[in-house]
Structures are given as C-alpha cells and as structure tokens.
Amino acid sequence: MAQVVLHSTQYLRREDLQAMDSYLQALPAAGPAQQSVSAPAPAQILALGERLYERHCANCHGLRGEGVARAYPPLAANRAVRMHNTANLMQVVLRGGYAPATAGNPRPFGMPPFQMLLSDAEVAAVISYIRSARGHQAGAVSELDVAQHRAQVCN
Fold first, then answer.
1. 20 to 30 A from 9, CA-CA: which of 15, 74, 102, 137?
2. What pLDDT is stored for residue 147 in this prediction?
3. What integer is the mean pLDDT of 124-151?
4. Which residue spans within the chain are E strands per DSSP?
C-alpha cells in the first residue's frame, strides 16, 4: 500500500476522495474481527515473548502497547492483533513495515525487519505474547506457522 499512496492516492482531488468515501460508506458493514480459536501459548513461551517485546518492541510501541500518536501504532486493543489470520503480524515482524512518504509526511517512521535477527521460535513467542497481553486473549502462533510463512514470502 505504501507504493499506492506514494505514487497515486496522495494526489487525489477532494472530489475523488469524497466519491471514494461515499462508496466505502455505502458498503455493508463488516462483522467484528474474528477472534483466534487456537490455544494460548504455554507460560514459558509467553515469558520469552515478553522479554523479546521489552527488548525489541517496547521502545516504539510502549511497555503497555500504547504506541506513540502519529509515529508508532498501538498494539493494545488493536484489531489486527486479535484476528484469526496472523499472516500480517508475521509479515510485519519478519519484513518490517513502512508508511508511505507523502507531501504531508515526507519522512515517515517505520518498523525494521527482524527476519535476520529473530528465529522462528522467537518470532512466534513475541507474536504470541502480543496476542495474549492486555486482555487480547488471542491464540498462540507456532514456530511452524512462522517457518511456513517465512518460506512462502521471505525467500
């Protein structure tokens, strides 16, 4: 999406934006985010995930997952964290995430990739911790899930 914004949508006229808004508002409402049905991670995995979160994530996303307005998204109460499909979470942890550069935000903040720093087990632990912390109660991500995701999209 960053390339779409960079090369296209940031240049839309007000009328085009209003037309898109009207169209999107007219679409049927989506249901609530599907909660994960997988089992929670064992305590030792969550403890590892918490240590990794404090070391690699808390400086930007906050110790309580509160984020920083206009810089780093909150993880607490974040719909994407609770979704059944965890592909986006694995993708952003492994490959990083960067907002598009725009005229109004020419140097956006981004998240570095951790695919060369964290093992599959560590990625699974930190995502499982995020999905279980602060009342999320979403299921665990397994080391196998991460390995399969990494094989599909990171090579």
1. 74
2. 94
3. 92
4. 97-98, 110-111
In this structure, the dihedral spanned by the alpha carbons of residues 4, 73, 50 and 77, taken in order and rounded to 10 degrees, is -110
For the stretch 113-130, pLDDT in tens is: 999 999 999 999 999 999
Query: What whole-number distance in Å separates Cα of residue 126 and Cα of residue 51?
Result: 8
Cα–Cα distances in Å, from 120 out to 65, 115, 142, 150?
A: 22, 9, 9, 8
Interatomic CA distance for residues 88 and 145, integer angstroms:
12
**What's CA 112's distance to the chain center, in Å?**
12
Is 57:106 a contact under the CB 8 Å cutoff?
no
CATH 3.40.50.1820 is held by the domain 2-153: no
Burial class (CB in 10 A: 0-12, 13-18, 19+), 76: middle
Residue 110, beta-bridge partner list? 98
pTM: 0.76
Q: Which residues, listed in sequence order, are joined to residue 7 by a DSSP beta bridge?
A: none
Which three-class secondary structure state does DSSP give residue 131?
helix
Binned at pLDDT 50, 70 and 90, residue 40 comes out as confident
